[in-house]
Amino acid sequence: MVRTTRRNALKLLGVGVAAGALGMPWVRNAQASGPYKIGFLGSLSGPAESLGAPMLEGVKIAVEDINAAGGTNGRQLELVVRDDKAKPDVGTAAARELVGEGCSMLLGVVSSAVALAVSAVLQQEDAVLITCAAHSMRLTKEDFNRNYFRITDNPFMRQRAQAHVMAERFGEVTTWGGLIPDHEYGRSTWECFDNGLKTYYPELAKAEPTISKPVMTTYGGSDYRNFVASAMRDPAVGFFVSAYGGDAITMYQQALPYGFFKKKHPIVDAANEFIVARAMKENFPEMWIGSHWYSGAFTGNPMNDELARKMTERTGIKFLDGFIGEGYSAVRAYAEALKTADSGKTADVIKALEGLTFDSPTGKRTIRAEDHQTIKPVVLYRVRGASNADGIEVVEHRVIDGATVIDPATPGVKLTF
Amino acid sequence: MSRGQNTSSTTSAANAAILAAALVFATLPLWADKGLVFLAGIVMVQIVFAVSFNLMFGLTGLVSFGQAAFFAAGAYTAAWLGRAVPELPFLIFCLAGGLVGALLALLIGVVALRRASGIYFAILTLALGQLVYTLIGKSDALGREDGLVGIKRPVIDLFVGTLDLSIGDRYYYFLLVACGILLGLLWWVWHGQLGRLLAALRQDAERIRFFGVNVRRYREIAFIISGGVTALAGALVAPWSQIITPAIAHWSYSALPILFCLLGGASRFWGPAVGAIVFAGLEYATRTMVGVSELIVGGALLVVVLAMPGGIVGTLSLLARKLTKNGKERLNEQSA
């Protein structure tokens, strides 16, 4: 029998304090020496798992490469991994946990909603985050804060580049529609693509585009047939799609029986890399896909070739997703920044990252000091199903110099067109 | 040992367990990492959420599948007011959140409790809850599917000075006190005259009606209290998580308190609290097992629910009674 006495209460309190003193794994700790701890936060389950998992592989390869070469400043990199499930609330909880475990250098994040949520608590938690895929323009515009960095391109760069290529190659297709997920990332991509069409069609195709109101879809849904049917009714011929991951696989497969891809052409896919193509194989319709990194576009770059070789060895996959390159690049950026910010303190790391130029699988990248947006090449490729061993083929690719398509640095100011 | 002594020892053990849990929560920021402290704050709010839900489920005998709608109503009201009229005191935001939740419960209760009970009531509340979820997801003012991000922790005016709850673990302790007060209020309702009447309604509503009691009115009162306190819990969580999304209004969030009640035991006041703590512990322990985490948590819950029909608290109570009875018999044998 346990009596509720002051003595028993003090005993319980003592147990709690003793637990702290014994250094249990969940006990608060600090990183003063030893390895630099890097926290990976990404979607490792749920509809965006197909985007987060390859990103983590890229991160792991970079950490292994750097550690094999002696680490940074003689210190090894240690990776701690957490799943954000592409949910903002889970992401912020996981970020706080990572910081609590001594990982004040965070990287990863697929979902823009997660990135916005985590970005909002970075200063309070004294942490820094480099996102590898989250594309919302708000992150480097109206919601910018100094603790946030983006290692990849953004919708202004990529979607306007896609619109540029469409105006150049399909000048006769002047009616455009969209299948857009109804969240920040979806709206951000559509605004930029829409603006790109209005900018480049008059300039390159000498025609004014007619742009329909996009069909807004759900995130994480299992039935997209109503959305596809709405898109079929739309008179637009060219279509832009920014659903991603498992959602895109479901939507494209459900669109096939409708004859969607026969009626609508060209199709521009915002960011699905080879994920949907690998799933649909020879049934995959031809489309132009935006990519973070395509190894075939950077052959000859030793870092690119080595990363592609290792990743193909590990997975047996020939067509690698760009998320791998971005995870790899984010670790490289931290490692380079730590050479001058050897303390690993957040303020020093931020200072070192601002304006940093570093090597990556896509060549030299520079992180713009003003808004922490990275200047890097924009990659697009034309993919279709094929009757070969892989079931798909890349027909052609385009690499556009990031410096020529990047938005002006206006941190704290909303992007307007 | 007399029966009175048995009850007294069981109560004493329960009190000790409650005190121990309170001590762990109170000392957590002293020894645990930030992630665990954050999780503990969420668990405290979820305890209030689950116990207020159990006022309907365990005490009154009605299953509401739309409880998350009240939670979201409180959270969104407080967060939206915090942006629209930041000069107002934070406590006003919380009270407004609770009031909106109570009003929503009144409206839903008027529709759902008029004719429905049992499964029909559950389905009606589920439908109305999903309506709230859809409305939030379509509302520009509430951030649509992205929700409201960057919610600030408040500064409270204490008349003799101000208390900035954004510093360190202050908001955690504020949550601890606020959740303690709300649980105290629910304890008072559960164990008071109203609680006894609601329990009687669950056992035999027809007989109570014959006594001249307006059954629907008392069920509505329970629904309003449950909805109001749930909304207050939602209002408290917004500055803690600093983000709210429509996911907190989704039916899957309504399933959480049901799960906590089944896990901990719906017939006891503290049952849902135990369920919430055990569930969070399971999730925390399996958080790094990507892909199998949900399987392990689900499997463990299934085992507990099937093997312990009275929940953890009910089973522990049964065991305690058996042990005391065995001890008493052995004592009698020795005496003989």
UniProtKB/TrEMBL annotation, chain A:
Pfam families: Peripla_BP_6. The lineage of its organism: Bacteria, Pseudomonadati, Pseudomonadota, Alphaproteobacteria, Hyphomicrobiales. It comes from the Bacteria. Belongs to the leucine-binding protein family. This is ABC transporter substrate-binding protein. The keyword DNA-binding does not apply. InterPro entries: BCAA_transport, Leu-bd, Leu_Ile_Val-bd, Peripla_BP_I, TAT_signal, TAT_signal_bac_arc. Gene3D superfamilies: 3.40.50.2300. Residues 35-384 form the Leucine-binding protein domain.
TrEMBL record, chain B:
It is a multi-pass membrane protein. InterPro entries: ABC_transp_permease, LivM-like. Keywords: Cell membrane, Membrane, Transmembrane, Transmembrane helix. Its main location: membrane. CDD domains: TM_PBP1_LivM_like (cd06581). It is found in: Cell membrane. The chain crosses the membrane at residues 12-31, 37-55, 62-82, 88-112, 119-136, 171-190, 221-241, 247-266, 273-290, 296-320. It comes from the Bacteria. It holds the Pfam family BPD_transp_2. This is Branched-chain amino acid ABC transporter permease.
